[in-house]
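TICKET #2291
ISSUE: user wants both folds in one file
ATTACHMENT 1:
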Amino acid sequence: MESEKPSEGRVVAFIDIGTNSVRLLLVRINPNGSYKPLTKQKESVRLGDKEFIDRILQPEAMQRAVIVCKKFVELARAYGAEEVIAVATSATRDASNKVQFLEMLKSEANLEVCPISGIEEARLIYLGVSSGLRLGDSRALLIDIGGGSTEVSVGGDKQYYFLHSFNLGAIRLTNMFLPDETGPVSMERYRMIKAHIRRKAALVIKELSRYRISCAVGSSGTIENLARIAFVYLHKTGQENYDLLGYEDLKTIVGDLCALPLEERRKFPGINSQRADIIIAGAAIIETLMEEMGLSEIRVSKRGLREGLLVDYLSKSEFSYMITQMSVRKRSIMQLGLACHFDEEHAHTVTRLALELFDSAQALGIYEFEKGERELLEYGATLHDIGKFLSYDNHQAHAYHIIRESSLPGFQPEEIEIIANLAYFHRKGTPKKKHPNLAGLEKSSVKSVRILAALLRIAEGLDRSHTGVISHVRFYIASTDTVVLEMHARKECQLELWDLEKHKKFFTKILGYNLQYKTIIEQGAVPFSTLEEEPELEST
C-alpha cells in the first residue's frame, strides 16, 4: 500500500544582486522543515562597472542587471515560487542613483529589492558560510571578497562575535588602480594596491587579532577562482580539490598573472576569463589579509549570501529549532532524512540502540574504537532506511546512492562514504573487504564500516517490528570468548530475536567474541536457548 503523497510545501526564491554578479537560489521548503534546492543560477552583470569614481550606476549596467533579474523572477514563478526575497549589496547601496535602479527593478522585473548595509551583508554571509562548516566551539575567520566590498566575520557554529564590511572589492580597486589596463601589471602597481588595502584594513585587523581563530574560510567567486587557478596551474596531484588556497601558491600565481597582458591573462590555466580583468585586484585583497593575519592557507566555501538568506528565512519560521538547536552536521542529516520522508521514530529507535551497543562495547573494552566513529554510527543509523523513499526492494542500495550524491554540509567526503556504506550494509550482504563499495576507501575507513555495520545490523534487527519493543540494551562479558547482549523489552519480542540470530556470525567475525543474549521483560528475566547457562547479571 502506497503512503499518502506528502504536501509539496512552498517554493521560495532568494536573489542576491551583487556588484559583479546576480545570484539566484530557488528552494522548496517542505511541511516537515526539510528543504530541497531546485536550482542555483548566477549571471555576471558588472553592475558596479565604472561606478566607484563618481558613485553613479551606469545605464548599461543597470539594464544588464534588470534583464537578468527579470529572467530569474520568471524562472522562480515558473517553479511556483510564492515568495521572492531579493537584496542588493555594495554597488547599489553606494550609488547616488540607487532609487532609480530600484524603481527599474520594480517596474521592469516586477521585483521588490531591499538594499542592505555592509554589516547586514556580513551577517548574512556568516549565516550562509557557517551553515556548511563544522566549527563546534572553535572560531573561524570568514572572508568574502565581492566586487565592491569585502566582508569579514568571526564566529562559531551558533553565533558570530564580530562583523565588518570594507569598501574594498575586486571591481572597486580595479576601477581605482587599473582603469582600462590591458597590459601587464607592474609589481610596483600591485604593491600600491596592497598598501591601500593595508591602510584601509589596519584598525579592523588589529581588532581581529584579539580573537583566537582556529581557521580561515573564504567565499565568493574571486576566492573560488584563485583556488582553482592554483590547482590547475601548479599541477597538483590526486583528487581534484579546490577547497584550499595556500599563501605561497597565491603569491606564485599572482606574480605570473601580473606579468601577462589582459588578453593572455584570459587564457591562464584555470581562470574564469570573465574575471581576468579584476582577478589581480581581488587577489591583492586576500593576499594582504592573509599576510596581516598570518594565514598560511584559507579554506574555500561555495556558500555565501544567498544561502545566508535561506538560513535567515528558516530561522524566522516555525522550523527555527533546526537552525538554533542543531549542529551543522546533525542538521544536514536531519534535512536529508526529512527530505526522504523517513520513518523518524524507527530511525531514532535504531540510533539509540546502536549507540547503546557502541557505548557498552567501548566501556567493556571489547573493541578499541577510533575517534569520531560513534558520531558516524549515529548518522548512519539515522539514515539507514531512507532508500525506502524510492522503493522497499533493495532500499539499502537506494540509501547508499542518495547519501553519496547528497550535499551534506559539515562532512568530509570520506565521512560521507562511511555513512553511505553503513546504510548499504545495514541489511543483506555484509561488508567484505573487497566489496566494490569499499574499493576507494582508506583502510581505516573500511575498518570503520565493518565494525560499525556489525553494531548497526543488530540495532536495526532489534526494532524489526518498528514498535520500539526493545527499550534498552547492553553487553557484558560472560567468559574470555563470549559476550552476552542483555535486552530490556516492553513485551515479547520473538521477531527481533529471530532477526538477531542472523547477525551473530558477522559479530563474532568482526569483534572476535561469541554472542549470546538474554532478555528482561518488565521485572522478570527470560533466558533463551542460546545461553547454555544463564550468567549472573552484573549490577547496574
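ATTACHMENT 2:
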Amino acid sequence: MPRPPRLASLLGQTALVTVLPVLAAAQQAAPAPSDVVDLGQITFSVLGADPVGDRANPFTLTGVKTATPITEVPQSVSVVSAEQVAATNAAKVDEVLAYSAGVQAAPYGYDSDTNWFFTRGFDATQTGVFLDGLQLLSYGFGAVYVDPFLVERVEVLRGPSSMLYGASNPGGVVNYVSRLPGGEPGALAEAGVDSEGRAWTSYDQGGTTNGGLAYRFGAKLQRVDGHGAFDDGLEGVLTGGVAKTFGNGGTLTVTTSYTRMDEDHVGGAWLPYYGTVEPTSFGTFDRYFNTGEPGYDSYEREQWLATAIYRQDIGAWRLTNTTRYSWVDLSERAVLGLGYTTGAQPLNGDDSLFRLGFILDSEATSLNNDLRIERTFTTGAVEHQLLFGLDAKHYELDEVQSYPAAGPLSASDPDYGTIPTDGGFPTSVDLRMNQLGLYAQDQLRWGDGWIATLNGRYDLVDIDVTRGGVEGASREDGEFSWRMSLAREIGNAVPYVTAGTYFNPNVVELPLSGDVSPESGRQVEAGVKWSPNERTLLTFAAFQIDREDIVDTRWTGSTTPYEPVLIGDVRSRGFEIEAQGELVDGLTYRASLTSLDVEVTENEATPALEGTTPWRVIEDQAAFAVAWQPAAAEGLTVSAGVRVMGPSWADNENTLRVPLTVLYDAGMSYDFEGGWTANVDVSNLTDEDYVAACQGATTCYQGEGRNVSLAVRKSF
C-alpha cells in the first residue's frame, strides 16, 4: 500500500533529528542533571516519575511535561500511587481509578483483557491512554494491554491535552508511569488468590552493579478464572530494564516487557436490557451469564514493548528523548449475544438469544518518539521555564474480522454446543497513521506568586485506511492547538483559570458522504488547589468542553457489521472535587465528587437526539474511603470505602434507564516482622447485583460481584 510521501519524508527526517542531538550531547561534558534526585541509593530517579509514597502533592510530568507539583499544573490532575494499587490487590489498571474524580472506570464491568476508561464523559480507551508520556494509540482491537505489575503510578490529566500530546481524547489523558530501574535496591516477592479463582505470583528486583549500572527485572504469572469464563486462562509478564549515567552527565534508561495471554472471555456482557436491568418473563440473567460457547471461545495475545529514555544537560538546556516500539498480535474467537430472537423481550415463552460468531486476527505496530529541550531563565522580573518539543508517531494495523452464523441460546435454560460455522464474510482493515507535531510551552512566574502557562502546538496527521479493499476517508490534515492559563499562589492555595483547544482525527473505514474533517473542540476550566502539607491536597474544578465533528461507528448486525455515522457535536460541563489527607493521627481519607452534564448539542444524522445524553455515560459519581492505622496495633491498617455511581442511559433516545448503584469496599493489611505483609481486599462487600452500563437495548454489561482477595508479600 503506498505511503503519503510528504509526511513519510518528515518522519524519516525526524528520526535523524532525534538521534543526532543525543549523539552530539554524548560528546559534551555537562553538569549533573538537575532533575536527578540523590536520596541515598536512589541515583536515577527523576522528579515526576519517581515513587509517590504518601505524598498528596507530588511532582508530575503529566500536564506540562516538566517536573511540576500538582498544585501548579493548570488543569485538574490525579495521581494514584503504587502503594494504592497494591492496597486493592488490583487485577487490572482500570480498577485503581474507581475513587478518582472525573473518571468512569471499568464502564463495561470486569473485562480481563482490556483497561477501559471514560474521562469527563468521553471514552479515553483508544486515544487517551499513554505510557511514560507516549501515546498507546489503538484502533479496532489493535491495543496494548498494560498489567498493574508494570506500573509505578497512574496519572489522570482531565480535559483536552492536544497542546502537549497532539491528537487525543477531549475528556483527558490516563498516563501510566513505568517501574524504572534506579530505585532503592531490593526485591519484592508476592503471591495471591481471590474468590473468583484468580491466582498469581510475582517477583521484582532492582539494584546497581559495582560499575554503576542500575537494573531492574521482574516476572508475573497469573491464572485468570471465574467471572463466567468457561475455562481458566493464563497470563505471563516479563520485564527488565537498565539505566546508566555517563561521565558527561547523560543518563540512558532502557526498559522492555513481554506479555502473553491465553484465556477465555468472561461472562456478564452482551446481554439484553430486559433480563439484565429490568426483569422479564424468566426473571433476570444469572450473574456472569456467558453468551459464548465452551470449546470455541478463545483469546490469545502476544505483546512486546521497548522504551528508551535519554536525558542530557547541554549547557543551560536539558534534553530529553523518549522512544517506544510496540508490537501486538491478537487472535480471538467468541459468540456474542445480540438481543432476543423475538425482539426486545421474550415472546410466547421463547427466551432464545440471537447470537453471532466473532473471529479476529489483529496485528498492530507503533513507533513513537518525543524529543524535547527545556531551560529556565529570567527576563527582568519574570522567570521563564521554556520547553520546545518534536513529537512523531507511526501506527500500523492489519486486522481481519468475520462474523459467522451462530445458533440461538436459551436465556433461562442454556444448552451450549452450537459451534459457529466458519466463514462469516471475512473483512480486512488496513490502517496507517502518521503524526508529526512541533510544540512549545512557557511557564512564567513573577510577582507575588503569579504563574502563567502558554502552550502552542502544530500537527501534521495523515491517515490511510481501507476495508475489504475499499479505500476509506484517507486524508492528510494540519491542525493547531493551544492552551493559556493564569494562576496565583495565595498561601497554600492556587486558584487558576485555563482555556484551550484540541483535535482528534476521525478514522473512517468506508467512504462517508460529506466532509470528514478532524474532530475538534475547546475547553474552559476554573478551579483551585490547596495543599497545606505534603499529605493533604484538595482540588476543585469547574469546566465546559465543546466537542465538534464527531464520527462514530455503529453496529448494524449485517455482513458489514460496522458503519460510520456523522454524529455532530456534544458538550460536557460540570465540576469535580477531589481530596485526600489525614483527619487525625493514623486516620487518612480519600474522597471525590463528580457532577457532569453531557448533552448532544447537534446531530446531523438524527436531529431528534439533540438534547439527549449519550448512552453509557454516568454523569454523577461520588466516592469516600478511609484507612486507619491504630497506634495500639503497630503494622495494622484497616480500610473501608463507599462508591456511588449515578444512573445512566441504555439508549441514545434516553428511554431506557440504568439505575444508581452504591458499592462498599473494605480491606485490612498487616506488616509482620522480617519484611512480610498480608493484605486482604474486599470489593463490592455486600455483593450488589448491578449493571455497569448498556449501549443499546441488546447490549448490557453486568458489574462485578463481591470479590475477596488475599496477597502475601515479602520484601528482601
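RESOLUTION: both attachments delivered.
EXTRA DETAIL ON ATTACHMENT 2: The radius of gyration is 25 Å.
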